[in-house]
Design goal:
Blueprint: E1 2-5, H1 7-17, H2 27-32, H3 42-56, E2 60-69, E3 77-86, E4 89-95, E5 101-111
Antiparallel strand pairs: 1-3, 2-5, 3-4, 4-5
């Protein structure tokens, strides 16, 4: 599954989560922090992974999760979510436009059959 991470969505998540870190939504602050553009919040990325998986597997729910962030996710980037399921463990890899791994992790699921 692919998704474009927009500056607007990052700003909305910052507002909803009350995240004051300016490098998430202010291009100038992002440049001062060493990024070409604002970057997405880690919890936003993990939430997107959960949402993408559950949209394909609506009878399941997530019991626990872990995610390792390997590189920043810049705004206006298209990412790909890849899932591999083994029993009740789902491994997720999030890659960017140049096939760089942005994040990887896993979550435990429970519920109905996978619809993959």
């Amino acid at each position: 599954m692919k998704k474009k991470i927009t500056a607007e969505a990052i700003q909305q998540y910052a507002d909803a989560s009350n995240d004051p870190a300016a490098f998430h939504f202010d291009p100038e602050a992002a440049m001062k922090a060493g990024f070409n553009r604002p970057i997405a919040q880690g919890m936003y990325i993990m939430g997107l992974a959960h949402s993408a998986y559950l949209s394909m597997n609506p009878t399941q729910w997530i019991k626990s999760a872990r995610m390792t962030f390997l590189s920043p996710l810049l705004s206006e980037t298209v990412v790909r979510f890849e899932f591999e399921t083994l029993n009740e463990e789902v491994h997720v890899t999030i890659t960017g436009e140049n096939d760089e791994i942005i994040a990887s992790g896993s979550f435990s699921v429970e519920g109905g059959l996978n619809i993959e």
